[in-house]
Amino acid sequence: MAPSHLSVREMREDEKPLVLEMLKAGVKDTENRVALHALTRPPALLLLAAASSGLRFVLASFALALLLPVFLAVAAMKLGLRARWGSLPPPGGLGGPWVAVCGSGDVCGVLALALGSNAGDGARVTRLSVSRWHRRQGVGRRLLAFAESRVRTWAAGAGEPRARLVVPVAVAAWGVAGMLEGCGYQPEGSWGCMGYTLVREFSKDL
């Protein structure tokens, strides 16, 4: 159960730098595990080996030919994750971004929502991050409960037949996946690269 002293409100403009740092820190906590998961799949290892073999005919250094493809692949993956989850989205039809604020006034979490592309798709969580100093204290559950309430209100006002919330989760974020399953969310799909999952999607009919 989330602590009673937690409140959720729209982010103020002066809080934007702090929230951006929180999002970037959250991505950094996950990106290395995602990169390790992706680059140790057999197709990725095969491609890296082929790239290294080709570079050996161009570069004089065997070590450089071996490490350069790995470095470039990790850098590209990290940049992609930071661009997707490490920045603030523009305000959407559901308002926000939203921040969780503890009793001392410190911002300890951030949430952003977006409407689905089609009617009946419900809404998606596009950003959900908790300060590393406030994790495992109910902040994520409080933000999720707020998101569900917001989506229900929007669906009722828009005359939608149902309210539905989708939450994407990086494959290495086992704690977030466990929290979602504990809150009644079900895995419904995934996307990735070369047939291997990088991001799983959880959904819940509200």
From TrEMBL:
Coiled-coil annotated spans? none
Q: Which domain of life is it from?
A: Eukaryota
- Protein localization: Membrane
Residues crossing the lipid bilayer are 55-77
Q: Keyword annotations for this protein?
A: Acyltransferase, Membrane, Transferase, Transmembrane, Transmembrane helix
Q: What does this protein do?
A: Probable acetyltransferase.
Q: CDD domains, alphabetically?
A: NAT_SF
One cellular component term from this protein's GO annotations in UniProt: membrane
> Taking the first listed entry, what is the main subcellular location of this protein, grouped into a coarse class?
membrane
The record's annotation in PROSITE patterns points to: GNAT (PS51186)
Recorded family membership: Belongs to the camello family.
Which GO molecular function entries does the Swiss-Prot or TrEMBL record give?
N-acetyltransferase activity
- Protein name listed in UniProt: Probable N-acetyltransferase 14
Instruction: Give the matching SUPFAM superfamilies.
Output: Acyl-CoA N-acyltransferases (Nat)
Residue ranges of domain N-acetyltransferase in the record: 55-206
| Keyword Transmembrane helix appears in the UniProt entry | yes
